[in-house]
Amino acid sequence: MRITDIEEHPITLEFNDWHAEALMHFHGSSGLQRSIFIAHTDTGLEGLGEGRATPEMVEQYIGTDPFDWIDDPVSLALGKAMYDLMGKHLGIPAHKLFGRRVRDWVPMGSWTVSQPPAAMAEEVRRFSAMGYTWMKYHTTPFQNVLEQTAAMQEVAPSYFKVHYDFNGGRTNDDILSLIREVAEFPIAGMGEDVMN
């Protein structure tokens, strides 16, 4: 099986009005851009991936076997398409190629960026009213995570959780200390990129 072509379908996601300014400040218009990739093969199988990849990245996959891309270091978006193809080719769920199934459902969460505590509380209010049960955001050293968490905790329904992404300019010691303090709040759900 060989990759014969990879189609890219760019999509633009619009930010909600109430937080568009904050999101644009951190990510600019590029934060809105994603692509759906469809990898075609000489066997007729198609694999789907989502994310970002440059044309130079895409070119590396053409003519190769999807199995050449196990533990793909080039592109997360295209790697998803390769695993989709491998699973389809073998007639198994793609997760069996890298581990056991953890759940048979997909959690849906909302997403924002680090903002002053009152704005973070407003994000929780709005997202929980929309039916979300999780919210992810990238912490920054420019805002006090504990003050943000306290403000979010005040307005959060009991089932609502926050996913903290700690990849913004902190030391490992700082992150570990922060995790210990944040863990005291019921709203604290999980951490990502906890070690730099």
Task: Tell me what the structure shows.
The chain is 33% helix and 22% strand. The protein starts with a strand and ends with a strand. The mean pLDDT is 91. Strand 2 and strand 3 (46-51) form a beta hairpin. It is built from six helices and seven strands. With 196 residues, the protein is α/β, with parallel strands linked by helices. Helix 4 (117-129) runs parallel beside helix 5 (145-155). It has helices spanning 20-27, 55-61, 76-90, 117-129, 145-155, 172-182, and strands at residues 3-12, 33-41, 46-51, 110-113, 134-138, 161-165, 188-192. It is elongated, with a radius of gyration of 20 Å.
Query: Please, how many helices?
Result: 6
Mean pLDDT: 91
The topology string of helices and strands comes to EHEEHHEHEHEHE
Strand content: 15-25%
Query: Residue ranges: pLDDT <50 for 5 or more in a row?
Result: none
Strand order of the largest sheet: 4-5-6-7
The N- and C-terminal alpha carbons lie at a distance of 38 Å
* Sheet of most strands: 4 strands, parallel
> What does the radius of gyration come to?
20 Å
Total number of strands: 7
| Helix share bin | 25-40%
Shape category: elongated
Summing up helix and strand content along with how strands pair, one would put the structural category as alpha/beta
